[in-house]
Amino acid sequence: MVDRLRSDIYEGRMAPGQYLPSEKVLAEEYQLSNKSVRKGLDLLVKEQLIVKIDRVGSQVLECIPGSRSTITFGITSSIERDFGLSALLDDFHSLYPDKRVKTVLMKNVPDHTDNMKGYLEQEKIDVFTLNNMDFQNLADYGQLHLLEPLQADGDLYRFTEEAFDYDQTLYAKPVVFSPIVLAYNRKHFRKARLPEPDSSWTWDDCLFYAAQLTDGKDQFGLYFYLLSDNRWPVFIVQSGMKFEPDEGNSLELAGTRLMECIRLCKRIATDSQVYPGYLLESSRDVTELFLQEKISMIMTTYMAMNDFKETDLEFDVSPLPYQYEPRTLLTVIGAALYKNSKNKESARLLMNYLTSERAQTMIHERTLSLIARRSIAELQLEPRQGINRPSRFALFREIMSSYRLHREMNLSSTAFNGLRQLLKKYWWGLMDDEALCIQVNEMFSRFGANDDVSKP
């Protein structure tokens, strides 16, 4: 009750001069005794948030100027789901009643790097969330000077901190992470009397079983949003190769493992026996079809599986099938501090809170997201009512050696985006293998694979 009332006052939902509900109403609403309600209200009096007026009620006080600070927290639309953010902010406010967190939704636009830069330079945010791809873009475009350098934390998984490291300097605190994994419908496999996926599966195995799970009408064996920046690069890292032009910036794609894995993507996406030809806007569409039990297997993340946590869907997870190397992509979400924030110390307090044992425990217990703090992440979870956690949830620990960041493809942001555009045309049948190889070589001849695009 106290936490909620305090939050309502700080967030402006209860204005100065407004009266709280009566003690009787509060007791009924929060199922407390009258004595407990009075003790809670006394605490708010001590915090100088309300005043008790005899025979009238409890009135919200005018806030004393300078008595509390507002932290502007820039987030993307998925953070509420990925962090369980509302509960975290309520907890933060209870710990620091003189702080108020105002969330700002940062629009996810095609040029997200410029968008983030604009928010920072216009001083619209003090601290903000970003993923490892956002960080790579900021680094490539020479914008890391906008971020406050940070100290490493020995209890956070090293690979999560490496996602936000540049020239041995840490620029963001990792909060949650996930490898790309295969989620599958156990009921479909049981009904078809097929073995469930395991770490030995190649993509050929996956396609073989997917064909048996497809009825060609309402159920398909395999689906993923190919154009997602966390999907198609999986096949590149599984080739075991990097994009490494020669000294003349020439790159021969034909006859390489890279080309074979690119060709595999096309083979999967055009196989109507296992892969539906729906037009998708995002990976969320795939999630929705999986929830409707129209798809048997999807490529997904632990964060996205939060969409399943309050359902009765019978699902589990497995390592991704592989082509040449059993590897998967790693995605990390962290919090960074604006270097020129006028409220830096309060903002730092929020950033540090998100990676604290307290906050990490809350995320660990209440979501399916994987947390960055090792000592909490590896604690065995007790079954929690209302959370549909897969039986192989701890799989992530077994496959850590397979984790790869996008930057291990050796592509700058410019090269990455250029390659994606070419691959899109190839997968849609607008160019053949030979044309793709020629155009990829021409692209790298213009600016190389890993140019420092921040330089003029």
Task: Characterise this structure.
The protein is of the alpha/beta class. The protein folds into three domains: about 1-60, Orthogonal Bundle (Arc Repressor Mutant, subunit A); about 70-180 and about 330-400, Periplasmic binding protein-like II (D-Maltodextrin-Binding Protein, domain 2); about 180-330 and about 405-445, Periplasmic binding protein-like II (D-Maltodextrin-Binding Protein, domain 2, 3-Layer(aba) Sandwich). It is built from 18 helices and 15 strands. It has helices spanning about 1-10, 25-30, 35-45, 80-95, 110-120, 130-140, 160, 185-190, 205-215, 230-235, 255-270, 285-290, 345-355, 355-365, 375, 395-400, 415-425, 435-445, and strands at about 50-55, 55-60, 70-75, 100-105, 125-130, 165, 170, 175-180, 180-185, 220-225, 295-300, 315-320, 330-335, 370, 405. The strands form four sheets. Strands 3, 4, 5, 8, 13, 14 and 15 form a seven-stranded mixed β-sheet that branches. The chain has a four-stranded mixed β-sheet with strand order 10-11-9-12, sandwiched between helices. Strand 3, helix 4 and strand 4 (about 100-105) form a beta-alpha-beta unit. Helix 1 crosses helix 4 and helix 4 crosses helix 14. The longest helix is centred in the first third of the chain and has 17 residues, at about 80-95. The chain is globular and about 85 Å long. It starts with a helix and ends in a 9-residue tail after the last helix. Residues about 450-455 have low confidence and may be disordered. Keywords: DNA-binding, Signal, Transcription, Transcription regulation, Transport. Belongs to the bacterial solute-binding protein 1 family. It comes from Paenibacillus agaridevorans. GO terms for molecular function: DNA binding; DNA-binding transcription factor activity. This is HTH gntR-type domain-containing protein.
